[in-house]
Design a protein that fits this description.
membrane; 1 helix; transmembrane; mainly alpha
Length: 57
């Protein structure tokens, strides 16, 4: 039988620091990608709004 104290949950803590920092970097890159997508959508929405306003002039 394996350990019962829940050590599987904290298994990442036993990894070397370099592996943990790579994991953090992947999370940071994912957040950067998400921010880029959201910003791009916001810019296109703003351009569409301006174009719609210009056509009404």
């Amino acid at each position: 039988m394996g350990p019962v104290n829940g050590s599987r949950i904290r298994s990442w803590a036993r990894l070397p620091l370099s592996v943990r920092s790579i994991r953090t970097s992947i999370q940071e890159l994912t957040m950067a990608d998400l921010a880029f997508v959201v910003t791009t959508i916001a810019v296109f929405a703003l351009v569409a709004l301006v174009a719609k306003g210009v056509t009404k002039l």
